[in-house]
Amino acid sequence: EEPVLLAELKPGRPQRYDWKSSCETWSVAFSPDGAWFAWSQGHCVVKLIPWPLGEAELCKTSERKSQGGKAETWSRGAAKEKTLECGQIVWGLAFSAWPAAEDGDTDPACAVGLPCLVLATGLNDGQIKVWEVQTGHLLFSLLGHQDVVRDLSFAPNGSPILVSASRDKTLRVWDLSRDGVLFPSGDTFLLSPGRQVQVLSGHVQWVYCCSISPDCSMLCSAAGEKSALLWSMRSYTLIRRLEGHQSSVVSCDFSPDSALLVTASYDACVIMWDPYTGEQLRTLRHVPLYSMLDSSSEIHTSSLRSVCFSPEGLYLATVADDRLLRIWALELRSPVAFAPMTNGLCCMYFPHGGFIATGTRDGHVQFWTAPRVLSSLKHLCRKALRTFLTTYQVLALPIPRKLKEFLTYRTF
């Protein structure tokens, strides 16, 4: 089943041609509960869109579009949309849902008065602005990076730990529960690096992407280099370099059980790794669609831009410069579905599955259907076990070899 375009959002402002008003959608993000969607629509603006009806509302929007209605008319709740004026080109977005403090509980996020849902935005001048989602108010800005903040990743366990990746060739780890020193700057407040936990240095090129594993034990970072770096989130030290690509690695993502890591590169390949051992498990090569249909065609490849896992961990989505969205089944070497898109830059699955959001170079966001799958009992058991067992712990179990191969994703 090929992906179907459900809806397309366009910037609400006329496009300017000054480089300072960059219109690219470099980042899209869903809140962990799927209730909010954010996109950097260019012009130094981020749009926050409430998501009360999810895919059902998308289908209604798609029907209106097919009947000649305006695609920009999102829903009856459009009045609740928020526009965040960031003042700089926005490159990275990340939501964090922090648990509300209970009676007698001193949750670190709520203890300092932070809301339970925030959005961090990485900006062109090196700042990270943190916003309250419900009101759209700016809480504070994090200072420390010396160049563009290209990507952001919150710890998936709900703790107020944020990792930022920058063109200054570093990653920085922030603890938003820590006290910082606020000082006024115009109409907002800037926060000195008092909340900065660690600076991770090791890349020699711009850092494009960072991803924290769902079990919060590892961090992967990708830069304009042929290798990706894997870090410990406990000691903030380098675990290993993942070497195997022939060109710059630009995107990375962990599987929902933390047992797999995928990296995408300008060499038109996605490599699937075992992050615990550093072993390459599979390479997915992006051959143009016409070359796959016509074996006599000369094969040309196209640089990748983004890769992401589906929520259940059985599919991957990739966006490449050949203007195709591809969906891959975990155990197959060829895509199971294609969709033509315009100059794609990023992609992200809806947290509950069913569709994918993609950002484009012209500032648009497109929403596509994605395969829905009922996970087998075998996969659910594997996913549950691998959530807390490393590859080495699985290999040490007194179980048959074939079962070990299945649990470590070596039965492809």
Automatic annotation (TrEMBL):
Pfam families: SOCS_box (PF07525), WD40 (PF00400). Signal peptide: none annotated. PROSITE patterns: SOCS, WD_REPEATS_1, WD_REPEATS_2, WD_REPEATS_REGION. WD repeats lie at residues 119-141, 142-177, 200-241, 242-283, 297-331. CDD domains: SOCS_WSB2_SWIP2 (cd03745), WD40 (cd00200). Keywords: Repeat, Ubl conjugation pathway, WD repeat. This is WSB2 protein. It comes from Rhabdornis inornatus. The gene is Wsb2.
